[in-house]
Amino acid sequence: MSQYDFDLITIGAGSGGVAASRRAALHGARVAICEGSRVGGTCVIRGCVPKKILMYASQFGEALEDAPAYGWQFGEPAFDLAALIAAKNSETDRLEGIYRRMLADGQVTLLEGWARIVDGHTVEVAGRRHSAGRILVASGGAVSRPPIAGIELALDSDQLLDLTKLPEHLLVLGAGYIAVEFAGIFRGFGSRVTLAFRGERPLRGFDEDLRTRLAECMAARGIDLRPGFSPVRIERRGEGYAAIDAEGREILADAILAALGRHPNTAGLGLESVGVKTREKGGAIEVDPYSRTSVPGIFAVGDVTDRAALTPVAIAEGRAFADTEFGGRDVAVDHGLIATAVFSQPQIATIGLSEGDAIAAGHDCQVFEAGFRPMKNTISGRSERAYMKVVVDRASDRVLGAHMIGPDAAEIMQALAVAVTMGARKADLDRTLAVHPTTAEEFVLLRTPRG
């Protein structure tokens, strides 16, 4: 009989933790998972899923505007944010129930309460101690609150998802995924939106052609972009708020969203007391390719390691950990080729190297690109254009990166990512027959490199 209560205790019932726990249980391990909040984690409860529900809702206004050009007539539309939030809450409740059933059906014991690591084989949950042969930390990320005076007056993304009254003017601080997504969503709902950020363009780290076009599209949709703005304090002003920078410039709004990043959620876990090494900046848990920390028997996956803060990556890391530790085969996740999408309006999707990163890595590149107005926009009269780009290594003909901004970019990139992951060459795209008429076909019709 084992000297431990469980073979594995997982801290955090989000995407990575649930995936790891269920896979370990399938391998025959006795598994418990700890959760002090709602089962499902950030993605299901307060991230990807509810955000995309709001994104879908925000696009109906544009569809109604375009409908008369296609022969449809409606009465005066009205939007009810409270009704949408109620529907969103109902869906997240349903999904949480599914996650709980998946754990129960998978023979994973749910320990409800906040967890703290006592030693290399002991976890305390809600005042009770449990032992395990291995401990997996999958506690995810948390909203960052930079040292800005009055930052507590701003909403974070969790709070914004529960607003039931639409702000007339929303100021969004930040330029990452969350900032540009919520700026587009609330503009679609009808709010006046200002997006203020420190740099020159939104979405640092993405291909420059995508960043430039996104900024142009957001401005064309009526979002007021304020580059070079970094607030030092937030104040109440009557019924609203003011964000003020070091030069005394002010932006007034009815509500402010602070979308200024996230950080690994390690506070209160007891990592220091057992010697688990974390990065000095940001507090991410340091791990090797097999998710092993500096302490034997303690592992970490997902956003808490800050390798790539994306739900599919956390799931892949969790399953790889379980296969390695309980499945009898060494599995490591390749973080070098990750497809991702930003549900901005219009959407951005990408896989592989940007043009700038490819050049910096020493590749002699050819760039193929296309910009056009999607067919749907020609009848409605919208001027917004789609843009696609493929970065190719000249010597090997291998596709180093693919990038897109436009309708259905995320869906298109998921399919293209299979080819790029398999090592597709530009010649492979060239010999692929197009599905016509589609937006996606442009990726296989690019023939002339940019001069």
Describe this structure in words.
By secondary structure, the protein is an alpha/beta fold. It folds into three domains: 6-143 and 263-326, FAD/NAD(P)-binding domain (3-Layer(bba) Sandwich); 151-260, FAD/NAD(P)-binding domain (3-Layer(bba) Sandwich), CATH 3.50.50.60; 346-444, 2-Layer Sandwich (Enolase-like, domain 1). 31% of the residues lie in helices and 25% in strands. The chain contains 14 helices and 21 strands. Strands 1, 2, 3, 4, 5, 6 and 16 form a seven-stranded mixed beta sheet that branches. The N and C termini lie far apart (70 Å). The relative contact order is 0.13. The mean pLDDT is 96.
> Largest sheet, described in full?
7 strands, mixed
Structural class: alpha/beta
Rg for CA atoms: 24 Å
General shape = globular
Which assembly state applies to the chains in this document?
single chain
Integer count of domains: 3
Could you give the count of β-strands? Answer: 21
Strand content: 15-25%
Stretches with pLDDT under 50, minimum 5 residues: none
Q: Can you identify the CATH superfamily of the largest domain?
A: FAD/NAD(P)-binding domain
CATH architecture of the largest domain: 3-Layer(bba) Sandwich
- The CATH class of the largest domain is Alpha Beta
Provide the residue-averaged pLDDT.
96
What separation lies between the terminal Cα atoms? 70 Å
Assign the CATH topology of the largest domain.
Answer: FAD/NAD(P)-binding domain
Query: Percent of residues in helical segments?
Result: 25-40%
Number of helices: 14
Features:
451 residues; alpha/beta; FAD/NAD(P)-binding domain; Enolase-like, domain 1; 14 helices
